[in-house]
Structure formats: C-alpha cells, structure tokens
C-alpha cells in the first residue's frame, strides 16, 4: 500500500447530493452530502447494503445522473453543469463504466467486434476498418479472449467471458478512470477470481484508477487500496482497506464486518457476532441526527438531535460518528461499551 | 447414522431442442436427523436440480432417468403426484432463494401461512389463525397480528424471507430444503436469517439440506458438505474434513479462489476455464480440463470414490496409489 502523500486526487467529490422526486411531494435522498477524493492510480472500494446509494453515487460520477447539489470534479474540472460538446466528449472518453449484469449490459444483436468498437467509432479513434479490427483484436488479447470470438454474439459466451467483453469495451477508448458497479456479483466464485485478477493486471499495466462498487466486503478488501462505507445515502467511514478491517471505527462498519461468514468452520463456531437488529429505514424519511442511530447498539442522546461531523479520527481514517467527537459523554460510552465490546472483538 | 432421506444414484436429464442435457449424473447422499447437509457448487453444477428432484418440482422438460430417493420407507421417485402432495410442504418443505418471487403477491401473508396449516395440519379457521401468529412470532417478526393482514410488498427482503421460513415450518416438516436462502439478501440480513435458521433447527430438530455457492455460509451452518461439479458429487465429508483436509483439486480451487479477509494476497488463485457442457459431458473426470494436476487417465476414465474416513470420500485419480503424490495448496486451507 502506498501512502497518498505524493498522489494527487483524480476525482474530488464535495458535498455531493443526488435526490429523486418520488411523487406526492416526497424526496428520496439517495446520496446525501458525500465528500471524498479518489487518487490517481488507486482503487477506491465503495461498500454498503442495497439501497445505501452506492450505485447512485457511481452513476452520478459518470454523469448518468445530474447532481442535485454539491460538486464533483475530474482532473480539476467539474463533471456536472454546462459543458461544451468537446468537453463532454473528453469526459465520456476518460471515464468508463463496467456494469453488474453481463447479460443485460451487452446488446444481443451486435457482434463482439461492434460492441467493443462502438466507443472507438464514436470517438473516431480508428482511421480505417483494418485499424479498427486490429484494435479490437488487441483488446480481446488483453482481456484473455480469443480472436476467433470477434464475430460472435453475446449469447454464445458464458457470464465470465461476457464480463471480459464488458471490460474490453470500457478499455477501448483508453479511459483513465473506470467505475465498476458490482462487476463480479453475477459470477461464480471461481470465475470472480479470474475477473478480479484481470482487473488488477490491467490496473498495473495501464495505471487505471478504479471506483469499485460492491457489497462483497472480502472481495472489495482484496482489490481496494482505500474503502468508503455508505449507509442510507451518507458516507460513514473512509479508510485504507487493511486498516478498515483491523480497526473499524464506525459501529455500522463493525456490524458489517462481523456479519460476513468466513470460510473457516472452526472460527465460525467460536465467533461472537454483532447481529444488527431490524431493517434499513426508508431513505425518504431518514432518522434525524445520525442515520444509523435507530439500529446502533451505542446510540446516545446526541445522536438523535445532531448529525455527526465528518472528521479525521486517525491519519487518513475518516469517520462520521459522535463516539469519536471527543465529548465527555462519548468518552464514557466509548470506554464503557468498548470494554463490554471485547467479547465482540471482531475476529 | 440413522438416515432420514437417502438419495441413490440419481440421474436427471433435461430434454431440449439441442438434445439431452445430463444435469445430475449419479448423485448419492443421505441426510441424518437433525443434521445440516450443504450441497455446494457453481451455477450449472446440478445442485438445484437435485433439490427439485427430491421435491418432484422439476420442469416438464426434465426427467428423473434412474435412481431412487428413499424417504420414510417410500421411494419418492415412484410416488403418484397425489401422494407427493401429502409429502410436499408437510414432510419436506422448501425455502427458495428469492422471497419476492416465492411468495404470492396477491395474497396476504396470513392467508399464505394459514393455507398450509389448513391443508397439512387439518386446523380450523380460528386455530390456524392463532398458530399463524405464533409462527410469525417464532421467526422473529414484530407485531405478528398486524403483519398477518399485510401483503408481501409491504415487507422488506429480510422480513419476507422470515415469512417464507414460517410457511416452511407451518407443516412441521422433518426435512427443510433451503435453496440459496440468503443469496438475495444483504450480509447483515443474511446474518440474521442464518442465526434464525440455526435456532429453529435446534428447537425443532429438523434436518436441513442447504444449497449454496457461498463457502462462508457453509462453514457457518453445515455439519456435512457435498461438493458438486458438472452434475456429480466430487467430494463429500464433514465440514471440517472439507475445509481442512479436502482431497479434490476442485474443492481446493473453490477454497483458494475466495479472498481471505485477514490475509493479504496479491493474486487470487483462480480456476482457469469454464465448466464442461453437460449436453456432451467428457467421458473422463469432468474437472480434468481445468485441473492443474490432470493425468492421462483423467481424460479417459471416470474416477471412482476413494474413502478416507467413514464420512469423507473423493472421486479423483490422484487418490489412486499409483498416482504421484500431490500436496494440497496452502491457500486451500488446513494444516500440514
């Protein structure tokens, strides 16, 4: 893991909000006041349960959605707002996306060549047909597919192979930033490992920056340099991935880590779980103060009245939780609960 | 062990336009009282088809070619549909993957539970309504009286899966087949449901056949494990034997391709290639084409089972005394 000292941010997100009008005067706050940076060449993992806003955030960063408020910049220039056609084209070329479902994200009526070359054509990257085909062949080699696959249709491929086609399509326009929204969730375990290894290899070779959105924490840990944890539209913790697993601060992160069943029966038999009670509250009418307080085992009075501040608890380790704001109450609850917490110490 | 359910040499094929697809090929296993047998494998390995054969819920294009499924002194394969209806839901119940599609969206939750109670337990109106409340309470649904009158769409995914479990329990079955019961749920909800299933099993002493691809869930729930690949059980053993002393290269591959939460590794050990096409299965070991240790014989002849303990057996030519010694890779777990 490198330190981020000498790295410059590629993407800067500041107080970004994305609301949806769901009718009857109700507003769904899918992403609510999120700020973070993604550094050049790193993989930023984004985790959280369904409905936490992680996909909406990813889609907002590639401008599939407009921002309701706040800003997001890519290489210093804003992603949203009015842009000239050429600016827009540059942005579309620099940021690419890999989708979750390899069955739904490829056009069934197009050959693999046409799917991969669509971006090449749109951006006029090839001078003639021969060059275009050469580029497609090179991309197929890169993602580990056969050149003879070029004239086939998506239905002739397995899920893992389709995801490779999706990756080749994203790479076709030489992007610097790739948003991968649950790229491996639809794949089998043994195939997941193939795709993740491929993504890591491509990053090494091409210096790509990834935003890796997933709900599978062990995979996210494996691929990410830093991880952001979202809950109900808000970012609750950001940290280097090793540190997040060794020393999670936010109670939500702790329960999330504790909930993952590990492939080790002896460990599973002795493990004490922090099982989260209840369900996710509605993002249309989120709880006051801290969003997590209704399910938080450490909730205090202040949590209901005041939203916790986003603060740097340790170097490079950000958290939004009253337990770490250093008030007297928090100190007491923290030390008290944390002693009792030993039994729950995450294994 | 006193076995409750015994599957012998089961063969199931689908008849499609493209020809016969041999989804399940000679599968045998038994399930004892109060135990949890996990069947693990990737999509297309035949694990769901096996479970649907037990329930006799196969699609019209599928046929049980041969084999037997012994349950309570009878062979379920030969039973009439009418007789099967008195077993399905009463003696053997099923929990499906997606609670949104397995519940009827046009019926209240109460009605769906009461339906089972009236049919299989011969309860009257009042008695069944009372029992439905108890069942919802038992699976941890708050305000059960209120929930009875609600429809599935008014509940969250986790709550819906609890309702599905309540329906499965309503017939007081001896065996529950859970086909990927937590795959559609988030991890924190998954933890709740797994905890619930374990508690209920302890209280009611039911046997569970757990179908899953998630080895973490297996480690958490199972007492015994059967690993399926290309329609066959390639290895079976107690949960510890599979996780710490596995013998089959496919099991090694599965265990090694999972990232470890507490270890850092640069590269995951992926299994190269894809599973074979079961409309034309290879004549030798189905895993040979992806196996790093494959020998000539693996492509030629199907390996038979080698017994390592009373509970642990694997079908692999490496177990033959004439084969070269191959050590289990470190990433596949266990101690040397």
Number of helices of chain B: 12
* Principal-axis shape of chain B: globular
- The radius of gyration computed from the alpha-carbon positions of chain A, rounded to a whole number of angstroms, is 22 Å
How many strands of chain A? 12
- Helix percent band of chain B: 25-40%
Low-confidence stretches of chain A: 337-347
Structural class of the secondary structure composition of chain B?
alpha/beta
Largest interface: A-B, 43 and 48 residues
- Biggest sheet character of chain B: 8 strands, mixed
Strand content of chain A: 15-25%
The oligomerization state is: heterodimer
- Which residues of chain B form runs of ≥5 with pLDDT under 50? none
* Portion in strands of chain B: 15-25%
Order of helices and strands of chain B: EEEHEEHEHHHHHEHEHEEHHHEE
Average pLDDT of chain B? 91
What structural category do the secondary elements of chain A indicate? alpha/beta
Proportion in helices of chain A: 25-40%
The side-by-side strand order for the widest beta sheet of chain A comes to: 6-7-8-3-9-10-12-11
Strand order of the largest sheet of chain B: 6-7-8-3-9-10-12-11
Task: Please provide a written account of the structure.
The complex is a heterodimer of chains A (347) and B (336). Chain A is an alpha/beta fold and 347 residues long. Chain A has twelve helices and twelve strands. Chain A has helices at residues 54-61, 85-94, 112-122, 129-142, 159-171, 189-206, 217-223, 241-246, 251-259, 265-270, 301-305, 328-340; strands at residues 9-23, 26-39, 43-47, 69-74, 77-78, 95-98, 177-181, 209-213, 226-231, 234-240, 310-314, 317-320. In chain A, helix 3 runs parallel beside helix 5, helix 4 crosses helix 5 (159-171) and helix 5 packs parallel to helix 6. The radius of gyration of chain A is 22 Å and the shape is globular. In chain A, the strands form two sheets. Chain A has an eight-stranded mixed β-sheet with strand order 6-7-8-3-9-10-12-11, sandwiched between helices. Chain A has a four-stranded antiparallel β-sheet with strand order 2-1-4-5. Chain B is 32% helix and 24% strand. Chain B has twelve helices and twelve strands. The mean pLDDT of chain B is 91. At the A-B interface, helix 5, helix 6, helix 7, helix 9 and helix 10 of A face helix 7, helix 8, helix 9, helix 10 and helix 11 of B.
């Amino acid at each position: 893991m490198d330190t981020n000292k000498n790295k410059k941010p590629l993407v800067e997100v500041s107080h970004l909000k994305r609301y949806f009008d769901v009718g009857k005067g109700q507003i769904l706050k899918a992403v609510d006041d999120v700020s973070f940076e993604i550094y050049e060449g790193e993989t930023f993992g984004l985790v959280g349960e369904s409905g936490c806003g992680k996909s909406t955030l990813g889609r907002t960063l590639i401008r599939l959605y407009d921002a309701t408020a706040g800003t997001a910049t890519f290489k210093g220039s804003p992603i949203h707002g009015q842009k000239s056609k050429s600016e827009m084209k540059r942005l579309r070329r620099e940021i690419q996306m890999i989708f979750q479902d390899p069955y739904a994200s490829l056009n069934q009526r197009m050959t693999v060549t046409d799917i991969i070359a669509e971006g090449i054509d749109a951006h006029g990257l090839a001078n003639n047909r021969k060059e275009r085909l050469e580029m497609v062949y090179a991309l197929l080699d890169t993602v580990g597919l056969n050149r003879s696959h070029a004239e086939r249709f998506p239905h002739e491929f397995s899920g893992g192979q389709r995801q490779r086609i999706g990756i080749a399509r994203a790479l076709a326009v030489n992007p610097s930033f790739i948003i991968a929204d649950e790229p491996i969730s639809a794949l089998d375990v043994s195939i997941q490992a193939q795709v993740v290894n491929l993504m890591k290899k491509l990053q090494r070779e091409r210096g790509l920056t990834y935003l890796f959105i997933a709900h599978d924490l062990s995979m996210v840990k494996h691929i990410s340099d830093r991880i952001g944890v979202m809950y109900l539209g808000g970012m609750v913790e950001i940290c280097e991935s090793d540190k997040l697993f060794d020393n999670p601060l936010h109670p939500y992160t702790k329960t999330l880590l504790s909930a993952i069943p590990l492939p080790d029966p002896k460990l599973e038999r002795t493990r004490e779980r922090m099982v989260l009670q209840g369900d996710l509250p509605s993002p249309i009418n989120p709880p006051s103060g801290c969003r997590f307080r209704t399910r938080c085992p450490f909730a205090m009075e202040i949590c209901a009245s005041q939203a916790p501040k986003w603060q740097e608890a340790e170097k490079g380790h950000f958290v939004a939780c009253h337990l770490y704001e250093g008030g007297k109450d928090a100190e007491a609850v923290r030390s008290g609960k944390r002693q009792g917490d030993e039994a729950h110490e995450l294994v | 062990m006193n076995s409750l359910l015994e599957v012998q040499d089961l063969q199931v094929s689908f008849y499609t336009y493209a020809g016969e697809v041999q989804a399940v090929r000679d599968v045998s296993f038994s399930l004892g009282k109060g135990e949890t047998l996990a069947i693990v494998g990737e999509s297309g390995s035949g694990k769901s088809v096996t479970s649907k054969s037990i329930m006799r819920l196969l699609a019209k294009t599928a046929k049980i070619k041969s084999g037997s499924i012994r349950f309570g002194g009878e062979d379920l394969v030969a039973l009439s549909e009418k007789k099967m209806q008195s077993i399905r839901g009463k003696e053997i119940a099923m929990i499906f993957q997606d609670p949104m599609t397995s519940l009827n969206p046009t019926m209240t939750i109460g009605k769906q539970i009461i339906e089972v109670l009236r049919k299989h337990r011969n309860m009257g109106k009042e008695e069944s309504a009372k029992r439905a409340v108890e069942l919802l309470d038992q699976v941890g649904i708050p305000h059960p009286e209120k929930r009875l009158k609600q429809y599935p769409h008014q509940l969250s995914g986790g709550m819906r899966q609890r309702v599905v479990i309540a329906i499965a329990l309503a017939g007081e079955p001896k065996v529950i087949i859970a086909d990927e019961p937590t795959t559609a749920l988030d991890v924190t909800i998954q933890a709740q449901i797994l905890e619930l299933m374990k508690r209920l099993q302890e209280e009611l002493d039911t046997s569970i056949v757990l179908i899953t691809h998630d080895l973490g869930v297996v480690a958490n729930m199972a007492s015994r494990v059967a690993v399926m690949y290309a329609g066959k059980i390639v290895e079976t053993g107690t949960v510890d034997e599979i996780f710490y002393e596995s013998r089959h290269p496919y099991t090694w591959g599965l265990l090694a391709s999972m990232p470890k939460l507490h270890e850092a590794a640069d590269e995951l050990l992926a299994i190269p290639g894809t599973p074979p096409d079961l409309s034309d299965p290879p004549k030798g070991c189905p895993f040979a084409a992806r196996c790093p240790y494959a020998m000539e014989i693996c492509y030629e002849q199907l390996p038979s089972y080698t017994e390592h303990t009373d509970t642990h057996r694997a079908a692999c030519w490496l177990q033959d005394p004439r084969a070269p010694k191959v050590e289990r890779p470190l990433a596949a777990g266990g101690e040397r």
